[in-house]
Write a structure and sequence with these properties.
The structure is a homodimer of 188-residue chains. With 188 residues, chain A is an all-alpha fold. The first copy, chain A, is 77% helix and 0% strand. In chain A, helix 1 crosses helix 4 (47-72) and helix 8 runs antiparallel to helix 9. Chain A has one domain: Orthogonal Bundle (Tetracycline Repressor, domain 2), CATH 1.10.357. The interface between A and B is large, with 45 and 45 residues. Chain A binds a DNA duplex (18 and 18 nucleotides) through helix 3. Chains A, B: It comes from Paenibacillus odorifer.
Chain lengths: 188, 188
DNA sequence: GTCTATAAGCAGATAGAC
DNA sequence: GTCTATCTGCTTATAGAC
């Protein structure tokens, strides 16, 4: 794998785990055994440019991964629950959040850097679009599919944050358990 | 008002608006016209101790405020929607988040500082307890009241984050609109 | 394209006068 | 209890050799 991709992959993981400001450039470089010269060659605008590259990479990876999950599972409900299971598994084995989430980066950077905010916005848009399309095929109207997709995203991201706060996987498990109550009874 | 309280109030606002790391000690001191000596006199452990004091203050303020809202409104649904309205109003007038939320601080600090994580955890616990108690009086079982309180918290915090990302109040409005669908049909 | 060494600036924290 | 001046360490970023 080339140096540039290596840097992006390493940085993505670290940013997701610890946030943006809590990870120093030196730490990233040490973790992937790359020097400062190489970083500023590939990313002239430094750390923030690297972050945006990470978000773009994450966008592609997440889109492919979620589309795959939605192919495997017949219903939106099952697909979403499978995604949540993956997040819980991540949290239990690694103790940190590395999957379909990057809300920490939003919280930290959205008010401070406009390009970063836009990259994050694009990412959520893509995820919600996948949910939304699937819901439409299940008989939801465009409008309620859109609302439901937004709600699922908000619930998952919020639950993730509560898991982090409580050091527990209960919030995500609870959301997963409750999802059927809203997804049922609204079809068509 | 004494210097200590002034520092806490000023810092609370700035932390909520821009996060923890994006606000420098100097910025806080300048904003409330206090010097470094005074800060380290009142908070020997510096910035992090100040943050924890902010979270404790926020805890009291939020608890009082929410309890008040719950007294004014007969049902949980109306109370929560009134809270969301307040958040939306905040977002529209000031462009930043300053109300019943501090998820940015969680995202930034929970993995890094244990005392901060605990202070945040306590805060969410209190908020959820108020929701939960109210739901029980409305006929919910202990268990489903607990789950519902958690879900409402997750939804609101997640929606808040999406509002920040999209620079729009739509996510919060959508959540507020959809809440009745889960709060109905589960009573008793 | 990658290296090392160094710069320049700012963060949080401290010491000691008043 | 509050002030000013100062310190240390760490941050990102650059310059120039290879």
């Amino acid at each position: 794998m080339d140096t540039k991709s290596l840097m992006i992959d390493t940085a993505t993981l670290l940013f997701q785990q610890k946030g943006y400001k809590n990870v120093g450039v030196n730490e990233i470089l040490k973790a992937c055994n790359v020097t400062k010269g190489a970083l500023y060659h590939h990313f002239p605008n430094g750390k923030e440019e690297l972050l945006i590259a990470c978000l773009k990479g994450l966008n592609e990876a997440i889109t492919i991964d979620i589309e795959d999950i939605f192919k495997k599972h017949p219903s939106t409900l099952e697909a979403i629950q499978s995604m949540i299971d993956k997040l819980i598994h991540n949290l239990e084995t690694e103790g940190t959040i590395t999957g379909y989430t990057f809300s920490s980066i939003v919280s930290e950077m959205a008010t401070v850097s406009e390009p970063v905010r836009q990259a994050c916005s694009l990412l959520y848009e893509n995820m919600e679009r996948i949910y939304c399309d699937k819901l439409v095929t299940e008989g939801y109207s465009q409008e309620s599919a859109f609302e439901m997709a937004l709600w699922m995203t908000a619930s998952i991201e919020g639950a993730m944050m509560l898991c982090l706060t409580q050091k527990s996987t209960t919030p995500l498990k609870t959301i997963s358990k409750l999802l059927p109550t809203i997804l049922k009874g609204r079809t068509s």
